[in-house]
Write a structure and sequence with these properties.
This protein is α+β, with helices and mostly antiparallel strands. It is built from 20 helices and 27 strands. α5 (197-205) runs antiparallel to α6 and α14 (434-455) runs antiparallel to α16 (465-486). The chain binds zinc ion (2 copies).
């Protein structure tokens, strides 16, 4: 790796709001950048609105404002949404900038000087009413293959055929409905991409350049001669005018990626730096692009060819993430499974919950991820709140109530383990394997919770105060380690641990924090409530809550090793009772074949009357950290239930002859 990193994510199109799919990419990239910065790298995160093209020109016209004003309004909205989700760009600029125009012209000239530009006539569809050439998306008609109505000019959504717009039957203008479309010829500029084909084959084959899944389909494109790329559009258009032309503009897909370079240039000019420090051919810098699957062609073929031809640095790595589904369905406005960033914020949900959920689900491969709102609730409440948050809060609160000062932390092997773990976590962040990062931190925190549970410092505070405070000091230190490892994902949570424990968190510091005062603890993360989830869900399935019933299971893969760490046991329910003032909870007393039966709390009071459960042999997860329900009600394990039968929860029952404590494998 070079000593400096320049990181970008795809430029959002300034024609609409950011949705939760955009945020998958933003969160993944932001987490990567924050992790690199935490580890001491110079890493700049540059982004911009992609502001040009026919859709924006037409939207602005419809809104009755100049396109510059239209994109300015969208820019303010995008910037505020990014800020709400703590996406920490060094610069969020736009592609309609003087810097971009300058770089676009230079790259166009360099391509020309390289003999890669060709001008030739193109026959296109023209609407005499709107007085404009119509791009494929602005022509509607019947598919020439299957006859399906209202298909776009380039491909049929029904049968998947691709064709020329002039092949459509009953073609009409999508803007004004004119069916009397003409065909007109106009000269266009083309980049002869095949000129760079051999170079692209070598570039894409270099190790680390592309993920293996992506390399596979790029190879397929490169196996055929690459088609020339039309980089010009006729007026009216919102973009940069092509030098020497009156009514011709650069196609938005030429100037958009150049926005990565020109926005870096803008940042450099504002900070007394030179763009060559990042993009110079020999700069000690790696350029990393994070993108979605839909724009791989542009980022692995067009863009590197342009940079190569014009003598700039080519990307070190193009990282592709999976697409987002919501409750198992593709995000679709017509199906009502579409959620904007604003919907999420307006429903009152905490942006850090989504950051945590995305990071906990994203791995290094481009597999799709599913946003299940129930899973979001369970993971935030069960992991961030009940595991790491609880460790920090419990330990800090006990220290606060008993002098407010940390003492000494033994044992030291915890810090030795932490050193090795931090190295692993750093490598995982480098590979964008945040799913594994989260798992490692949770495991480390669980162990500390178990240690605390075994030591019971809350009981010892009177009898052996030194031992109790030392155990708590260690727990606070472990919570601080976990917080710093999770900080790129949940910066506010980590900031809370830092603030309350009274000392800065810094990567690479393994000196225990000892003999130091702490500050008054307060909750680090709020619990996700069912009502909030239902409120957000109601925005995407009109009038309904989270869709009921079974759906395709889309959860990340578990290793055999991870699974085998789960201790499943048969348990006999010996007593069950309601919990006063908690109308969902049952307090179960369960015989697991141990010296004492355990107290386990289940949130199933709406599915079972207490006496219905007594005598049943159920399946119990026996090695979870204790979970505190307040008022001295602590659960030591979890009973498993199936969701969605006649009752909402149905206990997983084992035959009555299975002895309490038997392993379930
Ligand atoms: Zn068709
Ligand atoms: Zn028209």
């Amino acid at each position: 790796m070079a000593s400096r990193l320049l990181v970008t994510h795809a430029l959002p199109y300034a024609n609409g709001s950011l949705h939760l799919g955009h945020l998958v990419e933003s969160v993944q990239t932001d987490v990567f950048v924050r992790a690199m910065k935490a580890m001491g790298k110079e890493c700049r995160f540059i982004c911009a609105d992609d502001t040009h093209g026919t859709p924006i020109e037409i939207s602005a016209q419809k809104a009755g404002v100049p396109p510059e004003a239209f994109v300015e309004r969208i820019h303010r909205e995008h910037a505020s949404d990014y800020q709400a989700f703590a996406i920490d760009f060094d610069l969020f600029y736009n592609t309609n900038s003087p810097e971009n125009e300058q770089h676009v012209r230079r790259i166009f000239e360099a391509l020309g000087a390289d003999g890669a530009i060709e001008k030739r006539d193109v026959l296109q569809v023209y609407c005499g009413v709107d007085k404009r050439f119509l791009p494929d998306r602005y022509i509607l008609g019947d598919c020439p293959v299957c006859g399906t109505k209202d298909q776009y000019g380039d491909s049929c959504e029904n049968c998947g055929s691709t064709y020329e717009p002039t092949d459509l039957e009953n073609a009409r203008c999508a803007i004004c409905g004119n069916t009397n479309l003409e065909r007109r010829s106009s000269p266009h500029y083309f980049v002869k991409l095949s000129k760079y084909q051999d170079w692209l084959k070598r570039w894409t084959a270099e190790p680390g350049r592309l993920q293996p899944e992506i390399r596979n389909f790029v190879d397929k494109w490169l196996a055929e001669p690459l088609r020339d790329w039309d980089i010009s559009r006729d007026a009216p258009y919102f973009g940069f005018r092509i030098p020497g032309e009156q009514d011709k503009y650069f196609y938005v897909w030429l100037d958009a990626p150049i926005g990565y370079l020109s926005s870096t240039d803008k940042w450099c000019r504002d900070h007394g730096r030179r763009v060559e420090e990042f993009w110079g051919k020999d700069a000690d810098c790696d350029v990393l692009h994070f993108i979605g699957k839909d724009i791989v062609y542009h980022h692995t073929l067009f863009w590197p060819a342009m940079l190569h031809a014009s003598g700039w640095k080519v990307p070190a790595h193009v990282h592709v993430h999976g697409m987002l589904t919501v409750e198992g369905a593709k995000m679709s406005k017509s199906r009502g499974t579409f959620l904007n960033a604003r919907d999420y914020l307006e429903a009152g949900l905490d942006p850090e919950w989504l950051r945590y959920f995305y990071a906990a689900n994203l791995g290094p491969s481009p597999s799709d991820i599913d946003l299940s709102l129930n899973e979001l609730k369970n993971r935030v409440n069960g992991e961030l709140l009940a595991n790491v948050g609880n460790l920090a809060n419990r330990a800090l609160s006990l220290v606060w109530k008993n002098g407010g000062k940390l003492t000494t932390a033994a044992p030291s092997e915890v810090f030795t383990q932490a050193r090795a773990l931090e190295r692993e976590i750093g490598e995982l962040y480098g590979k964008c394997d945040t799913r594994a990062v989260v798992q490692k931190v949770l495991d480390f925190s669980s162990t500390a919770n178990q240690r605390l549970q075994a030591q019971k410092p809350w009981e010892k505070l009177k009898s052996d105060r030194d031992a109790a405070l030392s155990g708590l000091t260690l727990a606070v230190n472990v919570a601080r380690l976990c917080a710093r490892w999770l900080a790129p994902i949940v910066p506010r949570f980590a900031g809370g641990v830092e603030e309350q424990s009274g000392a800065k968190l810094s990567w690479g510091d393994f000196e225990p924090l000892q003999n130091a005062p702490i500050r008054e603890p307060r909750p680090l993360v709020r619990k996700v409530e069912d009502a909030e989830i239902a409120k957000l869900a109601s925005r995407f399935v009109a009038g309904a809550g989270v869709p009921a019933g079974p759906k395709a299971v889309v959860t990340p893969e578990l290793t055999v090793d991870q699974f085998s760490r789960m201790d499943l046991r048969a348990g006999r329910v010996v007593a069950a009772e309601r919990v006063p003032k908690k109308d969902k909870l049952l307090r179960l007393t369960i015989d697991l074949g141990e010296a004492q039966p355990r107290t386990i709390v289940s949130g199933v009071a709406q599915s079972y009357a207490p006496e219905e459960l007594i005598g049943k042999v159920v399946c119990v997860v026996a090695n979870l950290p204790p979970r505190d329900f307040g008022k001295e009600l602590v659960s030591h394990g979890m009973v498993l239930y199936a969701i969605g039968g006649d009752r909402e929860h149905t206990a997983i029952e084992l035959p009555p002859d299975v002895k309490p404590g038997s392993r379930v494998n």
